[in-house]
C-alpha cells in the first residue's frame, strides 16, 4: 500500500569520483578522504483529489558500497497516473534503488567496463549512468514479468530519479514527472517536455506488445557556489505550478528574496526540525490550491545550509 510520507534529513556527505573513471581500477573502494558536501531533503506524497494514492517518493542516502567514502544519494518520485499502475509504482518504489546499487556493484567488479577513457568525460558519465539505470529498470521489469504480474503498466508509469554525486547531479526520467534545478536564482529544467519523450519497443519486451520507455538521462555538472536546490515532482505539481513559480516560492521561503512570512506560513528554520519537508508540503499544498486534481508528490533537495549562511552574515 502506498502511503503519504515526509522523511527528512540534514547531513554532510563525501564523494571522490563520479564512478566511470574509477570503474576500471582495482582499488575503486579504497579511495581516500574527500570534500564534504551539504545535502538535506524533504518529501511528501499527497493523494490530493484522487480517490487513492498512486504516486510515491523515495530517498536513499548513501545507498551503495561506494559510501563511504563516496556519498551517492538517491531521490525519486514515481507516478502511476491511474489506479492500474499502482502495482508498478510500488515495485519501483521498493526495488529500483537496490537494483541500481546492484548494477553499480557489478560494473565496479567487472574486468571489462563498458565505457573507457577515450570518450569525452561528460559523455562517459552520461553513458555509464544511462546504462546502469536502464539496466536496473529492466531488471525490476523482468522481476514483475517473472512473478506473473501485469508488466504492461510500466509503460504508463512516470518517474524522475536523481543521483547526487560530488561533480554531477544525474537525472533519469520518463513520462511527465520532472526535475527543476534552482541555480543562482534561475530555474533550469533538467528533463525534456513530455512531447519530446522517446518510447521504444526493445528486445526484452515480454510479453509481446509491452512497451518499455527509453529513459532520458542527463548529467549536470554541479556548481557549488550557484546550485541552491532541486525540485522533483510529478505532474500533479507541474500541471498547476510552473517551474519558475515553484522555484520563486521556495527561494522566498528560504529567505533568499524576502524575509517576510505570511500569517499562515510557519517560519522555515532549521532549529524547528525539517525545513525541506515543510517546503515540500507547502509546495504540494500550493498545487492543490491552484486546482491540481492529481496526486501531488514532491521532493526538495537542498544543496546549501541556508541557515548557517544567514547566521554568518
Question: What are the salient characteristics of this protein?
Answer:
disordered N terminus; PPM-type-like_dom_sf; 313 residues; Phosphatase 2c, domain 1; 6 helices; PPM-type_phosphatase-like_dom; hydrolase; six-stranded antiparallel β-sheet; protein phosphatase; five-stranded antiparallel β-sheet
Task: Give the secondary structure arrangement, pairings included.
Layout lengths: L7 E7 L21 E11 L8 E6 L12 E7 L6 H23 L12 H26 L11 E7 L3 E7 L3 E6 L2 E4 L9 E2 L11 E2 L2 E6 L5 E7 L1 H4 L4 H11 L21 H15 L6 E7 L3 H6 L2
Antiparallel strand pairs: 1-2, 2-13, 3-4, 4-5, 5-6, 6-11, 7-8, 7-12, 9-10, 12-13
Helix pairs in contact: 1-2
Could you please describe the fold and organization of this structure?
- It catalyses: O-phospho-L-threonyl-[protein] + H2O = L-threonyl-[protein] + phosphate; O-phospho-L-seryl-[protein] + H2O = L-seryl-[protein] + phosphate.
- It comes from Setaria viridis (Green bristlegrass).
- Its EC number is 3.1.3.16.
- Keywords: Hydrolase, Protein phosphatase.
- InterPro entries: PP2C, PPM-type-like_dom_sf, PPM-type_phosphatase-like_dom.
- The protein is α+β, with helices and mostly antiparallel strands.
- The chain has a single domain (8-311), classed as Phosphatase 2c, domain 1 (4-Layer Sandwich), CATH 3.60.40.10.
- It has six helices and 13 strands.
- The protein has helices at 86-108, 121-146, 235-238, 243-253, 275-289, 306-311; strands at 8-14, 36-46, 55-60, 73-79, 158-164, 168-174, 178-183, 186-189, 199-200, 212-213, 216-221, 227-233, 296-302.
- Strands 1-2-13-12-7-8 form a six-stranded antiparallel β-sheet. Strands 3-4-5-6-11 form a five-stranded antiparallel β-sheet, with helices on one face.
- Helix 1 crosses helix 2.
- The chain is globular, with a radius of gyration of 19 Å.
- It starts with 7 loop residues before the first strand and ends with a helix.
Amino acid at each position: 500500500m502506498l502511503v503519504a510520507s515526509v522523511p527528512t534529513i540534514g547531513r554532510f556527505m563525501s564523494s571522490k569520483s563520479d564512478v566511470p573513471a574509477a570503474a576500471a581500477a582495482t582499488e575503486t573502494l579504497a579511495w581516500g578522504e574527500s570534500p564534504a558536501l551539504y545535502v538535506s531533503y524533504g518529501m511528501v506524497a499527497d493523494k490530493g483529489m484522487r480517490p487513492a494514492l498512486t504516486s510515491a517518493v523515495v530517498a536513499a542516502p548513501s545507498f551503495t558500497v561506494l559510501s563511504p567514502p563516496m556519498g551517492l544519494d538517491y531521490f525519486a518520485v514515481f507516478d502511476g497516473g491511474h489506479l492500474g499502475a499502482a502495482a508498478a509504482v510500488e515495485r519501483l518504489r521498493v526495488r529500483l534503488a537496490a537494483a541500481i546499487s546492484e548494477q553499480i556493484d557489478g560494473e565496479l567488479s567487472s574486468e571489462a567496463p563498458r565505457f573507457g577513457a577515450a570518450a569525452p568525460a561528460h559523455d562517459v558519465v552520461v553513458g555509464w549512468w544511462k546504462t546502469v539505470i536502464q539496466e536496473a529498470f529492466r531488471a525490476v521489469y523482468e522481476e514483475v514479468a517473472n512473478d506473473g504480474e501485469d508488466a504492461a503498466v510500466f509503460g504508463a508509469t512516470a518517474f524522475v530519479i536523481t543521483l547526487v554525486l560530488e561533480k554531477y547531479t544525474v537525472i533519469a526520467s520518463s513520462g511527465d514527472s520532472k526535475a527543476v534545478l534552482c541555480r543562482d536564482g534561475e530555474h533550469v529544467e533538467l528533463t525534456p517536455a513530455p512531447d519530446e519523450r522517446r518510447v521504444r519497443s526493445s528486445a526484452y519486451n515480454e510479453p509481446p506488445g509491452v512497451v518499455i520507455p527509453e529513459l532520458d538521462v542527463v548529467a549536470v555538472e554541479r556548481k557549488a557556489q550557484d546550485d541552491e536546490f532541486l525540485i522533483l515532482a510529478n505532474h500533479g505539481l507541474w500541471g498547476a505550478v510552473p517551474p519558475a513559480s515553484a522555484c520563486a516560492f521556495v527561494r522566498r521561503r528560504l529567505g533568499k528574496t524576502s524575509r517576510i512570512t505570511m500569517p499562515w506560513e510557519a517560519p522555515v528554520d532549521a532549529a524547528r526540525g525539517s525545513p525541506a519537508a515543510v517546503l515540500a508540503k507547502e509546495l504540494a499544498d500550493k498545487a492543490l490550491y491552484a486546482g491540481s486534481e492529481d496526486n501531488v508528490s514532491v521532493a526538495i533537495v537542498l544543496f546549501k545550509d541556508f541557515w548557517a549562511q544567514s547566521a554568518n552574515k
